């Protein structure tokens, strides 16, 4: 009788606790459905709080409640939820990620860094915390530290798309200065008797407003020497937007455009997408306006970019397209590239001078291969080879071969 009573109590207790646990899971499922499928945060909060009444130490639900408060712009309530989990389970990774993101999104980057560093002491191998730390350091303009962190993430997981996208933005900022030198040799089988030679030297400086690059280009085309002076700037607007502003002038019209200008607005979008829209202006004897748009995407170890150039002329619009793919085999400066295109690009110093004639309305197809490799972090070697099949006169085509080599030094 005694053992029978104890057994009955044990079964009853098991059933009660089991129902509570199951009930909390069911409520958690309903809360996520309300948040993600119905976009009803108040309902999701109510369901989560009901679940926590029966299971107050259910950390997943409390962290989710903190995220709901974050999305509902109730930071004080969110902090209470995250900190309660941290106080009871100091190694609970998701609570630090949630609290760190809360502070980061509310422009408290110093506080976010403290949260992330504490989290990494308790969960030192956490990839989400390391990635968040890189974002915070980038926002604090501590670019060299951010580069070290994100490079470590990519070393352990080279297919992590979000890290790859972030690393590209950080790398340009990781050293305040950079210099580069490049040379291109261009051979024509029919269109021109003599090859072209191009040399470019530039210096870039990172400022608190964004990077600024000064460049001197030399070219020997049509047996004539010419120089071009350019300035490019990439002003930082916000965490989402930045711009490209460019201008150039030449002393030898025909070898280079007499002057050129460009502007683009870039937007960093969710899911590692980036979009751009802008214009280019080239002046030879007349102005040539060209409008451009592009979309980019990181996917695992790959980067894809699709771009179009539209040139209005004589009640028609000339169109050109380019698809560029990179395969990263290491850091941000370690990749192979493949580009396929039609038409001419105003951003391509090798060929944009041909926009001075009617050839840009004729058929043109091109392909290029590139290789870029970092050496001891701050040195970068660049190689490329390209082939163009261009209709330079109606029904008359010629072939063009491009060979390029370059060196970049960050410091």
From TrEMBL:
N-terminal signal peptide? 1-21
Q: Which InterPro entries match?
A: Beta-barrel_YaiO, TPR-like_helical_dom_sf
Keywords on record: Signal
Cite the YaiO beta-barrel domain residue spans from the record: 176-348
Q: Specify the species.
A: Pedobacter planticolens
Q: Does the keyword Signal apply?
A: yes
What is the name attached to this protein's record? YaiO family outer membrane beta-barrel protein
Respond yes or no to whether keyword Signal is given for this record: yes
């Amino acid at each position: 009788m005694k053992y029978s009573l104890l057994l009955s109590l044990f079964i009853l207790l098991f059933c009660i606790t089991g129902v509570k646990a199951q009930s909390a899971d069911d409520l958690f499922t309903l809360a996520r459905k309300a948040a993600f499928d119905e976009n009803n945060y108040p309902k999701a909060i109510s369901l989560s709080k009901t679940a926590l009444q029966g299971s107050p130490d259910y950390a997943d639900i409390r962290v989710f409640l903190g995220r709901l408060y974050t999305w509902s712009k109730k930071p004080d309530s969110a902090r209470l939820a995250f900190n309660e989990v941290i106080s009871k389970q100091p190694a609970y990774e998701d609570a630090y990620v949630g609290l760190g993101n809360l502070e980061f999104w509310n422009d408290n980057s110093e506080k976010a860094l403290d949260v992330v560093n504490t989290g990494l002491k308790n969960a030192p191998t956490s990839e989400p915390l390391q990635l968040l730390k890189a974002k915070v350091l980038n926002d604090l303009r501590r670019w060299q530290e951010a580069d070290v962190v994100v490079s470590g993430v990519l070393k352990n997981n080279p297919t992590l798309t979000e890290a790859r996208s972030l690393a590209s933005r950080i790398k340009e900022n990781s050293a305040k200065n950079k210099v580069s030198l490049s040379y291109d040799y261009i051979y024509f089988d029919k269109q021109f008797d003599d090859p072209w030679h191009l040399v470019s030297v530039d210096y870039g400086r990172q400022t608190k407003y964004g990077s600024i690059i000064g460049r001197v280009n030399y070219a020997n085309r049509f047996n004539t020497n010419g120089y071009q002076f350019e300035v490019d700037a990439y002003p930082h607007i916000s965490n989402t937007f930045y711009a490209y502003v460019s201008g150039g002038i030449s002393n030898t019209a025909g070898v280079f455009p007499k002057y050129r200008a460009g502007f683009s607005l870039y937007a960093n979008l969710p899911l590692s997408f980036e979009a751009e829209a802008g214009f280019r202006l080239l002046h030879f004897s007349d102005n040539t306006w060209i409008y451009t748009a592009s979309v980019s995407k990181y996917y695992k170890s790959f980067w894809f970019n699709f771009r179009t150039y539209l040139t209005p002329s004589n009640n028609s619009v000339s169109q050109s397209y380019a698809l560029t793919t990179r395969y990263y085999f290491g850091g941000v400066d370690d990749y192979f590239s493949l580009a396929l295109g039609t038409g001419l690009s105003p951003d391509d110093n090798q060929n944009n001078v041909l926009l001075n004639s009617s050839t840009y309305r004729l058929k043109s197809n091109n392909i290029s291969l590139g290789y870029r490799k970092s050496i001891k972090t701050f040195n970068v070697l660049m190689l490329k080879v390209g082939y163009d099949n261009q209709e330079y006169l109606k029904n008359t085509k010629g072939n063009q071969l491009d060979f390029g080599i370059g060196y970049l030094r960050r410091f």
